[in-house]
Amino acid sequence: MEASEGLKHTGIEIGLYTLADIGPDPHTGKTVSAHQRIKEIIQAAKLADEAGLDVFGVGEHHRLDYAVSAPPVVLAAIAQATKRIKLTSTTTVLSTVDPVRLFEDFATLDLLSDGRAEIIAGRGAFVESFPLFGFDTNDYDALFSENMDLFLKLNENERISWNGRFRSSLREAEIAPRPAQSQLPIWIGVGGTPESAVRAGKLGVGMALAILGGDPVRFKPLVDLYYRAGIEAGHDLENLKIGVTGHGYISKTTPQAKDEFYPYYSNYWSYVNRQRGMGFRMSRADFEQMTSPGTALFVGSPQQIVEKILHQYELFGHSRFLAQMDIGGLPFKKVAEGIELLATEVAPIVRKETNK
């Protein structure tokens, strides 16, 4: 089936997310502290809220070169500095967290924020949380499956009895507090595996696609698998939601955006690949190809960004787009300028064009 068949056309949500990476500014060589990075993330969320964006997400890592290991704590701080923007994890490493604690933390966040909390759950691009919390990477998928099953039950029931393989059993356990919303919205983050798309569809939860580059059309089969699995499992189409996340940088013109962002984006992939034991370094020619009009890297003028979002919307019929703009040691002043452009020159056009 076509993705667009299942979507209510009310205009898609536009927002931001951060993974809180801590990298040196390639121009100055200076690296901000974790303290400053978290302060800037809270300020970015406040700016996004005031500018009228819809969602702000915070990711989870357990490394010294990332500032956030506890998204619900940071999101709770953001909740007190904002009024209406939705607050989500991007992503929660579900395989290595106790689902009961996760539910309680985000239910508390939901109460603090007057019903704005969400979770995007994933298996994680890094595996340092496994030994850190006493889990075996051989159980990578089994842990995720069991924890998702338990979390969905916790979301539905004030009291629960449950047996599993990886944590102690529950006997008429009271799960408190309950969120302000009737249930916490939960999405599964999908990086490209068909199995993850099918799982999200079967469970009837949202699917957040991480599309960091290349031709976005290659993700269309995952969207079709998601919808097919959801329908076969008996879920209503209106409850099957798709989000797209990607890297972005906006400036007045596309050439200016490319010139400004290339040093930071090259820097970002240099240290991310080094973290993963790879030595690839991005040339300017690589970057030019990655930012060409038909790709999923959102770098350019507001009009270029609008065109790329709408092209993906034609492919996927998604209901949410989140941009990651604060990477590679980019100074906060540039992040703030990007937030303003996204909110004032991109979001209004995209909402109008998708509200048909």
Automatic annotation (TrEMBL):
Signal peptide: none annotated. Keywords: Monooxygenase, Oxidoreductase. This is Uncharacterized protein. It comes from Peribacillus asahii. Pfam families: Bac_luciferase (PF00296). Gene3D superfamilies: Luciferase-like domain. GO terms for cellular component: cytosol. The keyword Repeat does not apply. The keyword Oxidoreductase applies. GO terms for molecular function: monooxygenase activity; oxidoreductase activity, acting on paired donors, with incorporation or reduction of molecular oxygen.
